[in-house]
Design brief:
With 123 residues, the chain is mainly β. Helices cover 0% and strands 50% of the residues. Strands 2, 4, 5, 6, 9, 10 and 11 form a 7-stranded mixed β-sheet that branches.
Length: 123
């Protein structure tokens, strides 16, 4: 079975940094991978994604200039470097993978999701 496991979340103060990791098992390949986040009572929000074929990266408006996505295509592994964290970044961060040529900026076009890692930013 396909498994995606996130790690690296925690409790930090505003202005701090965190680096999230997503490792996979049972995933032979992916066309793109990315990160989304969610909080109770709110819709899932796209955070960042990377297209393996050309290396292009995409970010949600709220994190541009602060977050950076990177990864290893061969290992189907991605990372999310999070700098200048703000209280509004508090959320459960989930890692996803897509195996079809779809729009990676939409959370509905990922074939697999992990269970998430919690990030809490205090002021």
């Amino acid at each position: 079975q396909v498994r995606l496991v996130e790690s690296g979340g925690g409790l930090v103060q505003a202005g701090d940094s965190l680096r999230l990791s997503c490792t996979t098992s049972g995933l032979t390949y992916s066309i793109y991978m990315g990160w989304s986040r969610q909080t109770p009572g709110k819709e899932r929000e796209f955070v960042a994604g990377i297209i393996w074929g050309n290396g292009l990266t995409y970010y949600g408006d709220s994190v541009k200039g602060r977050f950076t996505i990177s990864g290893d295509k061969a290992e189907n592994t991605v990372f999310l470097q999070m700098n200048s964290l703000e209280p509004e970044d508090t959320a459960l961060y989930l890692c996803g993978a897509g195996q079809r040529p779809k729009n990676l900026r939409s959370v509905e076009f990922y074939d697999y999701w992990g269970r998430g890692t919690q990030v809490t930013v205090s002021s």
